[in-house]
Design goal:
The complex is a heterodimer. By secondary structure, chain A is an alpha/beta fold. Chain A is built from 11 helices and 36 strands. Chain A starts with a strand and ends in a 10-residue tail after the last helix. Classes of the chains: A alpha/beta, B alpha/beta.
């Protein structure tokens, strides 16, 4: 409660008047000779208790009258119970992220949040304006009936959505309403990952209902990727499963189960596959259902094609020829000239290139690299046994190599990966259509060709980096913006239907699954929609922690729906109270008159 | 028809009547007016009338033997007559300081009203040739006028009424006992007081009078302000002029409780006095004198 004329509160000091009168009343008045004093004594004796109570009541009433008048003079403004609320702009932010679909006590959390939203809407008055903003960015405004219908229709989103953004949108809506009384009401499960960044409130009063209780345990597939993305046709699926106990999983490919197994808690699993189908395939890794169903399956897309045709150039040495023979025998490559393994002096693309065996050929090698469009050159020679650090290269060491230097003009223009390092130098790099190694493929320069990991490393380098046109695989969260390939005009949904897409940056579908961009009549690239990994972490914030995630405005977080509901529309309940106080004073005056009239011990008149 | 109050002092405002003259004159006028208003009674106060016969018993006075019956029927019968002696009455008047009070200057004090009422009672009884005495008391017996039936006795009573009183107390039992000693035969005792005293001792004294065969009448004189706490002050400190006891009170707050206390006290007096076979009448000082006179004698059959 605030006062527009606070100085008038000094009038409250006059409350001392009735108090003093009450205390001094027996000491005032004139002296009267009265022979019948014995009657008066008897009256005082018999009704003294009633008289004292009545006098005390009168004193309290008079004090209350003075206080009410003093408060009324101070022109208070505040909330008054039972007075309703003035027209208010209320935006309800409903958290319908995937985590709210978790079932607690046999009921999804989202259902509880929707109930609370409906209860809040039930308090709306005709002059109010209300909106519903969901975590997935949907906004519905208008009358209460329309918003209530939107609440009823709201389903759990397949992803995390963006609650801070939804809240910011709600703030904008109420600020733009032109209604002085504004409030944002947030209903959320309080998931820590959903409120991981500060949410500005712009001065708008915000009341938050956080679903009570602890989050249940959750199992989830948090990673499922093909390795490599282009299967030739062999490939593998690598999956990571979040669970507190061992869990069974299965792998689906093109809708058919192709593998199953058991994963230890926190372990990554790899399932090798060699599908008979060719082209783009949709796959999934899924678990047995638990309380949160939406993250029990994770989708991936793999492109399956024929093995690459590989040839070993003489400049690469005998180890290269032998390796190609072995890979061809295993069916991982075929003999051909699509991919070449050669010394850098014979550089072209696609190729796996090694440093030249003779130092005098370094200049020629650098020129060949430049001609092939490979943005690297061999620099100063390095010697000495040095361990090589890189995937699949455990135990490999280098005794002679050249420092790989990026060509200055090409730095940043062509992305390149460093596959391995020796000392402080890049030892193996990969880019568009090439894999470049800084040592010659001889045992004098490196023990790579005599290590057990040589052939797997070479096979993976060919398959992953040089295996052919795999097209793009885009990973996206539900509803997130994605880049449409310039050649694509349609998106094939998991049910086989084709949906035209014209925007350059359309939103990903809101349902998890594998979608394919169509190039003509064939699948040209994949769009894999999966919920954010963080959405599987159901840990919740406490009310204080959640309140700390908001800034720039008053915020109150409640874990009890009734208490939260009492705060909804409360922001606008401030109004002038002097009228009510004056009415109260009038009522007290009437009461004072009534109490004064009612004298104790009134009976019939004596004869 | 003319209003009888215009010509009858007994029906006039007592304060107005008090301005008509001396106490003696006022009493005469009141009684004269009062007598005019009475219907003629079939009873005669003093006449020898035959009552009944009874059989003679040894020791009876031979003067009352009915000789005619003896002559006719040879039976010894005694002729019984009504007693023909005059009434002997005593007015016991409270003249304590509490009586010297009025709640309004427009009214008589209780003492002034009571003196006029006592004079009227005395004159009324003398008028029908009864013997009347007067005892005035405050904290002790102030004056005693023995009962006499002679007309000159009236002046002695008037003279006694004009004596001073105003003692700081009311010794009503003493006055009543003194009255009993003055009336050896059963008679009438009229106590006129404001009864601002303890009822038990008064009742005991009255009981002893009743046991002696006296007819007892108590006229309780009250000022209307005593009945209603009719004082003008709102906050006041009240003081008893006799005991000098003080009490502060807010008049509007206690008025109803006070009225209740007065009513209860009067009822208690009625209880005590009925136990002593005494009639009790409350007389307000703003009432015409005819009212207490009628109430005092209504059921006593002492009127002519």
């Amino acid at each position: 409660m605030t006062f527009l004329s606070p100085l008038a509160l000094l009038l409250a000091a006059t409350v001392a008047v009735p108090l003093v009168l009450h205390l001094l009343r027996r000491k005032t008045g004139e002296r009267v000779d009265f022979p019948a004093l014995r009657y008066l004594l008897r009256a005082q004796r018999e009704f003294s208790r009633t008289l004292k109570l009545r006098n005390l009541l009168l004193m309290l009433i008079r004090v209350a009258i003075v206080l009410a008048l003093a408060l009324a003079a101070a022109r208070p403004v505040g909330r008054m119970i039972g007075s309703g609320h003035p027209p208010t702009a209320l935006a309800i932010v409903l958290d319908n992220s995937l985590s709210t679909s978790v079932v607690v006590n046999g009921r999804p959390v989202l259902a509880q949040l929707k109930d609370a939203a409906r209860d809040a809407l039930g308090r709306a008055a005709p002059g109010d304006r209300v909106w519903l903003v969901t975590a997935d960015g949907q906004v519905v405004g208008g009358d209460v009936g329309a918003v209530r219908g939107a609440v009823d229709r709201t389903d759990a989103f397949a992803g995390a959505g963006d609650l801070p953004a939804a809240t910011a949108r709600a703030v904008q809506l109420v600020q733009a309403s032109g209604i002085p009384s504004r409030q944002v009401a947030v209903l959320t499960d309080g998931q820590a990952s959903a409120w991981s960044r500060p949410t500005p409130l712009g001065g708008v009063t915000t009341v938050v209902f956080a679903a009570p209780g602890a989050a249940p345990r959750n199992r989830a597939v948090v990673r499922a990727v093909p390795a490599p993305p282009h299967w030739t046709p062999r490939g593998a699926v690598r999956a990571a499963i979040s669970a507190s106990d061992s869990v069974t999983f299965r792998v689906l490919l093109a809708g058919k189960p192709v593998a199953r197994g058991t994963a230890a808690p926190g372990a990554e699993v790899e399932v090798r596959l060699q599908p008979a189908e060719r082209g783009w395939l949709a796959g999934a890794v899924e678990l047995e259902p638990d309380e949160l169903r939406g993250d029990d399956v994770r989708w991936f897309a793999a492109h399956v094609g024929p093995p690459p045709a590989v040839a070993a150039d003489q400049s690469a040495g005998s180890f290269a020829r032998t390796a190609v023979d072995v890979l061809a025998q295993e069916g991982r490559v075929t003999r051909g000239s699509d991919v070449v393994i050669a010394g850098a002096e014979a550089a072209r693309r696609p190729a796996v290139l090694f440093a030249p065996m003779q130092a005098v050929e370094i200049g020629a090698a650098n020129r060949a690299l430049q001609r092939a469009g490979i943005p690297w050159r061999f620099g100063a020679p390095r010697t000495g046994p040095t361990p090589v650090r890189g995937d699949g290269l455990d135990g490999v060491s280098a005794t002679h190599w050249y420092a790989l230097e990026p060509v200055a003009a090409a730095v940043g223009a062509v992305p390149a990966d460093t596959l391995a390092r020796a000392g402080g130098d890049a030892w193996a790099v990969a880019g568009d259509g090439y894999v470049l190694v800084a040592s010659p493929l001889t045992t004098d320069a490196t023990d790579l060709p005599v290590r057990a990991g040589w052939l797997p490393w070479l096979g993976a380098a060919i398959a992953d980096r040089l295996g052919g046109e795999a097209g793009a695989v885009t990973e996206a969260a539900p509803g997130a913006h994605v880049v449409r390939p310039s050649w694509a005009r349609e998106l094939e949904w998991p049910d086989g239907t084709l949906h035209p897409v014209t925007e350059a940056r359309p939103r990903a579908p809101v349902r998890a699954g594998v979608y394919f961009w169509r190039r003509g009549t064939a699948r040209g690239a994949a769009l894999v929609v999966n919920p954010e990994v963080t959405e599987s972490d159901l840990a919740r914030l406490g009310t204080a922690q959640l309140a700390a995630e908001f800034n720039g405005g008053p915020v109150e977080v409640n874990g009890e729906e009734a208490r939260w509901l009492a705060t909804v529309f409360a922001v606008g309940g401030r109004r002038a109270l002097e009228g009510a106080l004056l009415a109260l004073a009038a009522l007290l005056l009437v009461a004072e008159a009534a109490v004064t009239r009612v004298a104790p011990g009134a009976t019939e008149e004596p004869d | 028809m003319t209003d009888p109050r215009a010509s009858r002092p007994d029906l006039m405002d007592p304060a107005l009547v008090a301005g008509l003259g001396s106490l003696e004159l006022i009493a005469r006028r009141i009684v004269d007016g009062f007598m005019q208003g009475l219907h003629r009674s079939p009873r005669k106060g003093f006449s020898v009338e035959f009552a009944e016969h009874r059989t003679y018993q040894s020791g009876d006075d031979l003067r009352y033997i009915d000789w005619k019956v003896l002559a006719r029927s040879d039976r010894w019968m005694m002729k019984m007559n009504n007693e023909d002696t005059n009434l002997r009455a005593t007015v016991v008047l409270d003249v304590s300081k509490s009586m010297d009070w009025t709640g309004s200057a427009a009214r008589l004090t209780k003492a002034a009203y009571a003196e006029r009422l006592a004079a009227a009672v005395a004159y009324l009884l003398l008028h029908q040739r009864d013997a009347v005495g007067l005892i005035r008391f405050d904290d002790r017996v102030r004056s005693v006028v023995p009962p006499r039936a002679r007309n000159v006795h009236w002046h002695r009573i008037i003279a006694a009424l004009e004596e001073r009183g105003n003692g700081l107390g009311s010794d009503a039992p003493g006055g009543l006992i003194r009255a009993a000693s003055m009336i050896p035969r059963p008679g009438m005792v009229v106590l006129i007081s404001d009864l601002l005293m303890e009822p038990v001792e008064v009742a005991d004294a009255l009981k002893s009078l009743a046991a002696a065969g006296h007819h007892l009448t108590v006229l309780q004189v009250m000022d209307p302000a005593e009945r209603d706490l009719g004082v003008t002050a709102v906050e006041a400190e009240f003081q008893d002029p006799e005991t000098l006891q003080k009490l502060a009170a807010t008049v509007p707050e206690v008025r109803d409780a006070y009225r209740t206390a007065v009513a209860e006290t009067i009822e208690e007096w009625r209880g005590h006095l009925s136990g002593a076979a005494a009639s009790h009448e409350v007389v307000m000082t703003d009432q015409p004198f005819a009212i207490p006179l009628r109430r005092a004698f209504l059921n006593r059959q002492f009127l002519p």
